[in-house]
Q: What sequence folds into this?
């Protein structure tokens, strides 16, 4: 007969807590068309002068990819086709961090261990502030504190400290919305807003059936370009990133053209 100790040993361990969100410095109307190209189910809501995107699923767990890589790919896809920056916040059982993507510039990011220990480069935080036009004195004082040891601040507290600084740049997260909490909780809070939108990714579940050939080709370019660009980001290969971006931008432009000037 198994003992209580053996039962405890055989009990499956809880799944790692992970989550992510995207912040786009643009209105929801501008973000929605590009967000659909990610082919993910997301909640989209206004966050002051920004837009907040919360994944309704955790595809990084299914694909076996680290959450930071998945979010960097998404942020890159959103930013290359727009004139506004995209900030990805992510966390799992071991680490948390952010990635800022603005146009064709190289992404910049920072990482903390789960207990809040800084594990990034201080210079990255200065680049982050400069690209978002934050105050080089007042805001940088707060950001610098996020890169120094603090036993009272875990990774979640670091992320919340980061978003607190962004309130000076027009960010207003929904009430009770706290980066670092489980994905289910974030969806619950974000979905309770009056102006929330449910973004459905194009190209999934047979959605391409019946579309004109030009639409199908454009969707294929976007679908291929995203992983190519993501692969290039991971390998730090400018050539592969440029190829992926070219495919995505060309496909996105073709989709936009077909929407405004449909072929007979």
A:
């Amino acid at each position: 007969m198994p003992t209580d100790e053996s039962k405890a040993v055989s009990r499956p361990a809880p799944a790692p807590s992970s989550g992510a969100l995207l912040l786009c410095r643009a209105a929801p109307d501008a973000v929605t068309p590009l967000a659909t190209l990610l082919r993910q189910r997301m909640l989209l809501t206004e966050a002051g002068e920004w837009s907040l995107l919360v994944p309704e699923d955790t595809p990084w767990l299914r694909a076996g990819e680290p959450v930071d890589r998945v979010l960097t790919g998404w942020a890159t896809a959103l930013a290359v086709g727009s004139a506004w920056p995209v900030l990805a916040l992510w966390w799992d059982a071991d680490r948390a961090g952010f990635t800022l993507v603005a146009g064709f510039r190289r992404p910049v990011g920072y990482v903390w261990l789960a207990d809040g220990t800084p594990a990034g480069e201080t210079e990255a935080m200065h680049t982050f502030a400069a690209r978002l036009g934050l105050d080089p004195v007042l805001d940088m004082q707060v950001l610098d504190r996020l890169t120094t040891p603090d036993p009272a601040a875990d990774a979640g507290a670091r992320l919340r400290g980061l978003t607190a600084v962004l309130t000076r740049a027009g960010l207003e997260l929904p009430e009770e919305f706290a980066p670092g909490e489980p994905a289910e909780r974030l969806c619950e809070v974000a979905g309770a807003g009056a102006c929330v939108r449910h973004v459905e990714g194009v190209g999934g579940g047979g959605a391409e059936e019946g579309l004109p050939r030009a639409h199908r080709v454009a969707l294929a370019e976007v679908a291929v370009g995203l992983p190519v660009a993501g692969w290039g980001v991971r390998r730090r290969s400018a050539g592969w990133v440029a190829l992926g971006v070219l495919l995505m931008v060309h496909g996105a432009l073709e989709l936009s053209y077909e929407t405004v000037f449909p072929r007979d």
Observations:
- Confidence is low (pLDDT under 50) at residues 1-16, 203-211.
- Strands lie at 19-24, 42-47, 50-55, 86-91, 95-101, 108-113, 197-199.
- The radius of gyration is 20 Å.
- DSSP finds ten helices and seven strands in the chain.
